[in-house]
Amino acid sequence: MNFLSDTTAPAHPALLDALARANEGFAPSYGADPVSQAVKQQLCDLFETDLEVIFTVSGTASNALALSVLCPPDAMVLCHDEAHIHRDERGAPEFFTRGAKLLPLAGEHAKIHPDALADTLRQWPSDFVHATPPAVLSLSQLNESGCAYTLDELDVLIGQAKARDLLVHMDGARFTNALVSLSCTPAEMTWKRGVDALSLGATKNGVMASEAIILFSSVKDRLPQLLANQKRAGLMLPKMRYVSAQMGAWLDKGLWLDLAQQANAAAKRLSDGLSAVDGAELVHPTNGNEVFIRLEDGLAARLREAGAGFYSWPDGSARFVTSWCTTDADISALLDAAR
Amino acid sequence: MNFLSDTTAPAHPALLDALARANEGFAPSYGADPVSQAVKQQLCDLFETDLEVIFTVSGTASNALALSVLCPPDAMVLCHDEAHIHRDERGAPEFFTRGAKLLPLAGEHAKIHPDALADTLRQWPSDFVHATPPAVLSLSQLNESGCAYTLDELDVLIGQAKARDLLVHMDGARFTNALVSLSCTPAEMTWKRGVDALSLGATKNGVMASEAIILFSSVKDRLPQLLANQKRAGLMLPKMRYVSAQMGAWLDKGLWLDLAQQANAAAKRLSDGLSAVDGAELVHPTNGNEVFIRLEDGLAARLREAGAGFYSWPDGSARFVTSWCTTDADISALLDAAR
Amino acid sequence: MNFLSDTTAPAHPALLDALARANEGFAPSYGADPVSQAVKQQLCDLFETDLEVIFTVSGTASNALALSVLCPPDAMVLCHDEAHIHRDERGAPEFFTRGAKLLPLAGEHAKIHPDALADTLRQWPSDFVHATPPAVLSLSQLNESGCAYTLDELDVLIGQAKARDLLVHMDGARFTNALVSLSCTPAEMTWKRGVDALSLGATKNGVMASEAIILFSSVKDRLPQLLANQKRAGLMLPKMRYVSAQMGAWLDKGLWLDLAQQANAAAKRLSDGLSAVDGAELVHPTNGNEVFIRLEDGLAARLREAGAGFYSWPDGSARFVTSWCTTDADISALLDAAR
Amino acid sequence: MNFLSDTTAPAHPALLDALARANEGFAPSYGADPVSQAVKQQLCDLFETDLEVIFTVSGTASNALALSVLCPPDAMVLCHDEAHIHRDERGAPEFFTRGAKLLPLAGEHAKIHPDALADTLRQWPSDFVHATPPAVLSLSQLNESGCAYTLDELDVLIGQAKARDLLVHMDGARFTNALVSLSCTPAEMTWKRGVDALSLGATKNGVMASEAIILFSSVKDRLPQLLANQKRAGLMLPKMRYVSAQMGAWLDKGLWLDLAQQANAAAKRLSDGLSAVDGAELVHPTNGNEVFIRLEDGLAARLREAGAGFYSWPDGSARFVTSWCTTDADISALLDAAR
Q: Which chain D residue shows the shortest CA-CA distance from C23?
């Protein structure tokens, strides 16, 4: 009953097969291999557009590298106060942007509130030499409270950002969980809404280590700088085929969607079941594979005694994360212990 | 007949087995897993000392992260003019050190000449507020011309560095190739000579993507900063077990030495055979798995026609790199084409 | 009737005399001159302690250089949301610290509220590798709303900071205005309360361009790094005597206190007079030489027509700044126009 | 007999008068004052072109700020191995460019040799993602050995640079000394030769602290970024009028040329006289106000005993620097002591 994090789960067996297939013979280094090229085509097809992509090995690297070509060093990224880029990356965005500022914005359920964004844009001018100008809006989808912005909510926030010429970054460490939750297409959740760059995470959803940084058409011409930054950051792996092969297998035949659906379904069952128990109160809606729930002390202790692993969150709630390999038996055992 | 680079070669099958074994069940994230802990113990045993280690995924990351805890932003790394950290990493050391200077030093066969080091140390003071002080000496072993410093040569250069309180970094992207060439122990080629930190590369020697940054006892206390920098650089992989597992399999039962020996032997046969041909002249001694040889135009063309892949080097020579999977047949075919 | 900023005012005549005196003969460069040494002694005497000091030429440089030796690149400065270092320095602290984070805290009248500080310290751990640790508390005295922390308020906030081993920086761009407002000694407002480093501003108070960065005994040993950073930032002026001579003349015979008293008195008269007028409402207490007051549109227009220069502040109020050369006639004319 | 440095000399009395004039009444802050605007016009007239300019307070700041808008963080500045930006600025260019590389080139008398430049450009490609691309050629005029490039020499080097699309920066800390030595116009020594940006120094030539960063038409559009960097570096002084007023007085009625002529003439007399003495040997031609001369130990001791102040240079020579206030009597006394 490990609900600590989706990064504690093993990789799906298809990934090992893909690595074995990628391990045949010699191949060009640094991403020029045929596997990487094929995965780019897969992504173009799935996102229904011509895009540029590079592969990397951690969500932090993926976010920070993306921001490095979106935000100048003397400018500012607007994000939610709970955003992973602000709270959980040891300042990687500040490092990769060479000193940009991250401005934390308020909003319930880790969603930026449109009023908070409007107020911030009013307070921080774009062309005053003394002030750090806003340059990027970064949205997490799924976000740090396990919630997904609806397409309408995305429209409002991105509209505000575009009206001030900001670029829009999406932290998609749990992109697929949000995608299957909203039942929309990848295109509908990204470039069709105005997203300029996407950090698409596979690692948390059944993969060993593979993330894609996708530049949509509005910023596609920044690929050379992105490659230079990737190299300079030690993130251009010599044998890139082993990273892209993971992404390819994950995207193939809808595996990414299947794995996310499994994780989301497990989370939903856990969320519904546990919140129905006395002494438990759901803190955020469960839109993906994360459940935040306030537990009375006795209840929390009982769950831990039964062998459930979960984190105590700073806001006092308990966080349960499911993954593609959370079993029905795990959920049942947890709910039995709770009742 | 692919002699382009050891990074174009596939990984040894033992690596895939190791990944499959590592893929069992849940494991703590970010390097706290039992696999990573076990590999640390393997390294302590093999290097015969208590050391600290973190794992990463490219040689550039390994060098730059190591330097990030050895060299302050307003200080200087001394390296050979041909050093990979100076020529081939798009300024990653400058990025990770937050602006340190790399000073290129002269010397034949990509080895720093003791006179060049002495002259530099004389010219650049350690305590003059206007000048960038030397802080680190970085030595590549095997170096960029395929040569290994002898233990005596290491003693001289490191002695000069220590007399000025410099720390010593070893770029060991092809460490094992140098090690088997010198027939010494890992300890003898590193901390027993005064090396403070080692970037130990496995990727070029039969692995998919795994590198170790080793802090010997003199700088072991810098581990917390190294971890912080690793996180900040997006290089603390969530599922680190898959990186350390590769290193573990590679070190296990002498596989790393076997693979390097194979590559070195192939290079030696290639070097001896090709330099005996009319119109070919060896440029550097062959101490590892790289052969630098000047070829008359006709000869070079003949080899390419026969299907040999190799790079033209900036100094006008041709570079042939062998790997663990270079076959006797490859070498024979090359030499046949040459004659 | 120029109330735009204290930086629009000319320098006191004593400053020109001091420059003329400093301009006699040859003198050592880069701060090793006798004038600079003498001013250091003046500061030791006035602050009643052994301190280290360097001189610089803008408040932004003074703050950013001070922070560069207090906050590591992967750590965090806590400051008020309205703080000059956060809002008005184009990210100079991020630049000089090489990428540190500035976290904006709430509190009325631009004073950090102790609850906000406590909450922040609870949310941001000091030793979690994924999170940016708080390293410095920066307090503006006088602050950006023209208010001074009382000595008791300083005790509370600094006590909270010290309990978590944070260093304390004071942005004293208008230090003297706060000092005469509180009627305490420089020591009582700084190191006796736990302030580790002070950016002491003279420019806004009658000087051409002179600021002191003072390291109190707790961080005095950081002087060599401060000097290195000063040089690296192009802020170690070759003929430093002309900067320190200004500071010396300003400190001499209580001139700094006299000038601040004049400015504060003018502000008090303006504040009292204007807030008694219909259609005007004071927004913050007037503790120094800045008055923030909400004006009805007609009233504001009338003042501008009468020739009064003042800025409209982002919060909708009008900001009036007085200086040592604001005259009684200026105030009278303003108040006459208002009535 | 102070020949230590031109930065040890006092300022010309005209400077004090200019400060007094600038000190009349209120003026806009941060460079928007009429004095600064007038000086910009003076520079346009003297350089016979439409240019952009900002003012700063040290040569290091001037060089580093200029380079900050010429060289990207992952690119490279080519300069002479003895260049001030490489040797004497504690890495300020690396800091301001956010991590660019400075590559030291060889050449006698601190002049880059065209072969060294050609060789470097051949070795370092512009479009290889792994290598740091050359972006800027920086030339010191007068250089660190007291020599001036001839106009023909400038044409050769700048031609090589332009053929590879490099921008050209001129470190003119002693610009006027070179100018009067070559008897050409400011335009002929700069933009007419292809110089894109000039760091024009006044401080070493009779001024307290004033330097201009001039962007010629090819890079004029980078002014907004230069202003942002100036602010971010704490170098946008609140009361900028006192910096620009110095530059204005210095340029007025040819004072800058007169002062340089005096200093150069003194150096010439010193150079001619001292090199005619037994035991003295001129090391570099004397093109400006610096004399580098090798002195036998006895001779050097004799000069010091007579009260002459000069530095021992790293190459073993003695450096004598003259300034606008070096007197004929000083030179005579020195030569008398030498004979």
A: D10
Q: For residue B306, give Cα distances in angstroms to B252, B298, B301.
A: 38, 12, 9
Q: CATH 3.90.1150.10 region(s) of chain B?
A: 255-338
| ipTM of the prediction | 0.97
Please name the residues in contact with D122: beta carbons below 8 A apart, sequence gap of 6 or more. Answer: B314
Residue A12: exposed, middle, or buried by beta-carbon count in 10 A (0-12, 13-18, 19+)?
buried
Secondary structure element (H or E) that encloses residue A95, with its range: helix A92-96
- Closest-CA residue of A relative to D98 is A98
Site of tokens 């629009």:
C8
Question: Rounded to an integer, what distance in angstroms lies between the CA atom of residue A243 and that of residue A237?
Answer: 8
Consecutive 10-residue runs of chain C (339 residues): their mean pLDDT?
A: 92 97 95 96 98 98 98 98 98 98 98 98 96 98 98 98 98 98 98 98 97 98 98 98 98 98 97 96 97 96 95 93 95 94
Helix axes A59-68, A223-232, angle to 10 degrees: 130
Beta-strand pair D52-56/D211-215: antiparallel
Neighbours of B104 (CB within 10 A): 18
Give me the residue from C89, C101, C123 closest to A91, CB to CB. C101
**Rounded to whole angstroms, how far apart are CA atoms A217 and A227?**
16
> For the domain A13-253, what is the CATH code?
3.40.640.10
Closest residue by Cα to residue A309 from A279, A339, A333, A284: A333
pLDDT in tens, A194-218: 999 999 999 999 999 999 999 999 9
The answer to whether the beta carbons of residues D102 and D79 sit under 8 Å apart is yes
Helix (H, G, I), strand (E, B), or coil: what is residue A75?
A: coil
CB B8 within 8 A of CB A29: yes
In the predicted structure, residue D135 carries a pLDDT above the cut 90: yes
A86-95 average pLDDT score: 98
State the best of A232, A236, A237 to mutate against chain D, taking most chain D CBs within 10 Å.
A232
Q: What is the DSSP letter of B127?
A: S
| Portions of chain A given CATH number 3.40.640.10 | 13-253
Q: Tens of pLDDT along C239-289?
A: 999 999 999 999 999 999 999 999 999 999 999 999 999 999 999 999 999
Classify domain C255-338 by CATH number. 3.90.1150.10
Tokens at C273, concatenated: 């007079």
User: How close D189 gets to chain C, by Cα (Å)?
Assistant: 25
Among D314, D254, D257, D317, which Cα is nearest to D290's?
D317
Q: Which two tokens stand for residue D332?
A: 């005579």
Query: Cβ(D17)–Cβ(D207) under 8 Å?
Result: no
Substitution target in B97, B223, B230, B232 with the highest count of C β-carbons within 10 Å is: B232
**The tokens 């072991």 sit on which residue?**
B220
In chain D, the residue whose alpha carbon lies closest to the alpha carbon of C66 is D234
Collect all residues of chain A within an 8 Å Cβ-Cβ radius of residue C98. Answer: 99
- Whether the predicted pLDDT of D179 surpasses 90: yes
Q: Are A234 and B61 in contact (CB under 8 A)?
A: yes
